[in-house]
């Protein structure tokens, strides 16, 4: 079995990849991560999804490809140029709403509204390296929290590896999560939220 064969990517992914290269955006999710996101999204019918870090919409496209018609996706990024690519190719899908703002501010707004979600893909600093507690507070029991880029990446600055190690330790110590670490793709953690005792 080869994990890169017959991925059957979303129909708009090729266009998004070309536009991503054109603007030299280097932080897009890879296809293996996307494939897993799609599969996990399929397990959550009629769900509310939250993507922290839209980028150019690579992860967004895979999530939408796994979501059913009753699900919704909120996705946020502060990078106007990057998110405009996602909006150009995915904005016609009524299930997704794009927000161009700081992720930390957005998380606070969602908390203030009392919103809860069933799935979080945290692909930026807020909700991952900062405001982790705020993000997980939004997650319903049984909800999934997914992060990528846990294995060393060429784009990492020198001071980044300790931040990754710290995040992994924090997630491992949380008593409200059951998690699996995948030494695959860019390095993934999939965590499910437990009911409180």
Quick structural overview:
The protein has seven helices and seven strands; from the N terminus they run ααβαβαβαβαβαββ. By secondary structure, the chain is an alpha/beta fold. The protein has one domain (28-193): Vaccinia Virus protein VP39 (Rossmann fold), CATH 3.40.50.
Strand count, sense and barrel status of the largest sheet are: 7 strands, mixed
Q: List low-pLDDT spans.
A: none
Label the CATH architecture.
3-Layer(aba) Sandwich
The average pLDDT score comes to: 95
What descriptors fit this protein?
197 residues, alpha/beta, Rossmann fold, seven-stranded mixed β-sheet, 7 strands, 37% helix
Protein topology:
Elements lengths: L12 H10 L8 H12 L5 E5 L5 H9 L5 E6 L2 H11 L5 E5 L2 H11 L3 E6 L9 H7 E9 L13 H13 L3 E6 L5 E6 L4
Parallel strand pairs: 1-2, 1-4, 2-3, 4-5
Antiparallel strand pairs: 5-7, 6-7
Helix pairs in contact: 1-4, 2-3, 5-6
Structural summary, described in words:
This protein has one domain: Rossmann fold. Helices cover 37% and strands 22% of the residues. The chain is built from 7 helices and 7 strands; from the N terminus they run ααβαβαβαβαβαββ. A 7-stranded mixed sheet has the order 3-2-1-4-5-7-6, sandwiched between helices. Helix 3 (58-66) links the parallel strand 1 and strand 2 (72-77). Helix 1 (13-22) runs antiparallel to helix 4, helix 2 (31-42) runs parallel beside helix 3 and helix 5 (103-113) runs parallel beside helix 6 (132-138). It is globular, with a radius of gyration of 16 Å.
């Amino acid at each position: 079995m080869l994990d890169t064969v017959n991925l059957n990517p979303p129909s708009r992914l090729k266009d998004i990849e070309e536009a991503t290269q054109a603007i030299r955006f280097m932080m897009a999710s890879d296809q293996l991560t996307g494939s897993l996101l799609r599969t996990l999204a399929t397990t959550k019918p009629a769900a509310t999804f939250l993507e922290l870090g839209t980028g150019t919409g690579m992860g967004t496209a895979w999530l939408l490809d796994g979501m059913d018609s009753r699900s919704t996706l909120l996705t946020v990024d502060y990078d106007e140029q990057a998110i405009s690519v996602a909006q150009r190719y995915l904005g016609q899908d009524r299930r997704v709403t794009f927000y161009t703002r700081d992720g930390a501010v957005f998380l606070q707004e969602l908390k203030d509204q009392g919103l809860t979600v069933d799935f979080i893909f945290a692909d930026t600093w807020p909700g991952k390296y900062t405001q982790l507690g705020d993000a997980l507070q939004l997650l319903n029991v049984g909800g999934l929290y997914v992060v990528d880029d846990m294995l060393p990446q060429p784009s990492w600055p020198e001071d980044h590896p300790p931040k990754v190690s710290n995040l992994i330790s924090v997630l491992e110590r949380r008593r409200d999560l059951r998690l699996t670490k995948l030494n695959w793709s860019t390095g993934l953690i999939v965590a499910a939220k437990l009911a409180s005792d």
